[in-house]
Amino acid sequence: MTGPEVRCVLLADRHHGLTEGLRGLLETLFDTVVMVADEHSLLETASRLKPTVVVVDLSLGPGQNLGWLRRLRDRCGDSRIVLLSVYDESSVTRTALAAGADAVVLKRDIVTHLLPTVEAILAGTPIPEPTPPTSSTPG
Question: Which CATH superfamily is domain 8-123 in?
Fold first, then answer.
């Protein structure tokens, strides 16, 4: 007989203050929150833990290359991957999704969109769309 499934989230971002804040949010949904701060640790830890969800900053990898995201997907294919991004261009989201992400959450929307996005990908329901940029054109 097996016990209940332990749900684990792997959180990867170079900014310790952000990861600490996100850990508090994610602890409401997961049994375990593991934090890493670089690409190597992300790939090693993901391979070892096979987390339920990976929440990772898009800028964790070097430059514009998303090879690290493809390697992450290869190492833990059953994990759901949510990218955090400061870029609100739809081309960035499309590229990230094509490289293996399940969802993209804009950093400016983390407080309102991260948990609903994670819940949606776990439930297999439609993912909330990133909020389009607000226009600063005077009216």
Answer: Response regulator (3.40.50.2300)
Eight-state DSSP code of residue 64:
T
Give the DSSP per-residue string, 79-122. SEEEEEES---HHHHHHHHHHT-SEEEEGGGHHHHHHHHHHHHH
Global pTM reads 0.87
| Alpha carbon distance 132, 49 (integer Å) | 34
Alpha carbon distance 104, 114 (integer Å): 9
The tens digit of pLDDT for each residue in 57-89 reads: 998 876 667 888 999 999 988 999 999 999 989
Contact 125, 106 (CB under 8 A): no
Residue carrying the six token digits 């094509």: 98
pLDDT in tens, 89-117: 999 899 999 999 999 999 999 999 999 99
Both tokens assigned to 22: 């996100």
Q: Is 136 helix (H, G, I), strand (E, B) or coil?
A: coil
